[in-house]
Amino acid sequence: MIKRTVFLLFAFLALSYAFSQTKTIRGYTLDLKTREPLEGVVIFCASSNVTATSGKSGRYKITVPKTATELSFDFPGYQTFSLDLQRHPKYSGQEVNLRCDSCDGLALPLKKNVIAIAPVEFFNLTTTLQYEHFVKPDISVGILLSPFYNSKQLIYQEPVYTGLKFAPFYRYYPWRNLRNGAFLQLKLIGGYFELDDISYHRIDYVISISDEFWTFGFGLAWGWAWYPYKKMVMNLSLGFQLFPMKSPSTITKDGQEYHRGNTNLLLAIDPWYFGGPGSLIEIKFTMGGIF
Fold first, then answer.
1. Fewer beta carbons within 10 angstroms: which end of the chain, N or C?
2. Which residues of 129-165 are buried (b: 16+ CB within 10 A; e: fewer)?
3. Helices marked H in 180-272 — which ranges?
4. Domain boundaries in the chain?
5. Residues in CB range of 227: below 8 A, 6 or more apart
6. What percent of the chain has pLDDT over 90?
7. Cross-sheet strand order for the sheet of 50-53
8. Is the dihedral of CA 275, 277, 278, 282 positive or negative?
9. Residue 245: which of 206, 197, 193 has the closest Cα?
10. What gap in Å lies between CA 73 and CA 76, rounded to an integer?
């Protein structure tokens, strides 16, 4: 019993001594200009090799030896800040303001999710919904959803499209700050469609059929993002896509071949690839919120 008491007393004294040789420093990390809290700032004490990271509200806590002389605050795109603990021995609970070095004094938007809508796409008369999630400040993933219901191409008015087009995408922002940014986008595309009034021609004869199919493709785009207000985002992108129509190019009826399209040069352009779901050129303007 005596040995156990002595052991516990010794352990208590050892822990007390250990804690008496350390101190805990708390505070906040903020952007110097915008006063936005910075999440993910690395706080490092070189003398003890102790590291901590600031949380969502910019808060941090780090326990270092009382003999520690300096803390460094490091965040991508910002100037490293060094805190002299000898000049400020009781420093705790205060702010650390970091100066942005690579984004003209502007912090990256801390919000990580975007929900936006393209009311009407150019060359492709449909509404598109967009969800985007930032996995890193310069990398995002998301999905585009474009429903079609009895939709028609602006010039040809045929065929009539009904279906859903979905496109998971990956975006890389080579440049982005609190106000705007530029991105490159790669997307994979899939969709299911029902088409009515598909025209097939043979000399002066025309027949129309209906068809339904799944189709898949891919697309590339270059775009620009604006953040005019704290919780608002706008995107403008110009892209190319390859999203084929799966209806046959030729059908046979009564022993005669009919071809999709027209012998007229203008009308020979397939509506699917010019103003339809498979438009080769895409121009999107979206507006939404970032949170």
1. N
2. bbbbebeebbebebebebebeebbbeebeebbbbbeb
3. none
4. 2-98, 113-290
5. 109, 178, 179, 180, 233, 290
6. 26
7. 50-53, 42-45, 70-74, 81-84
8. positive
9. 193
10. 10
Q: What is the 3-state secondary structure (H, E, C) of 222-286?
A: EEEEECCCCCEEEEEEEEEEECCCCCCCEEEECCEEEEECCCCCCCCCCHHHCCCCCCCEEEEEE
What residue has token string 């070095």? 101
8 A C-beta contact, residue 39 and residue 75: no
Residue range 183-209: mean pLDDT, rounded? 89
- The two tokens of residue 255 are 């022993």
What per-residue confidence (pLDDT) applies to 111?
Answer: 61
Q: How far is 241 from 280, CA to CA, in rounded Å?
A: 5
Joined together, the tokens standing for residue 44 give 């490092």
Tokens of 257: 């071949």
| Mean pLDDT score, 217-235 | 91
CATH class of 2-98: mainly beta
User: Which CATH code is given to the segment(s) 113-290?
Assistant: 2.40.160.20
Mean pLDDT calculated for residue range 21-45: 83
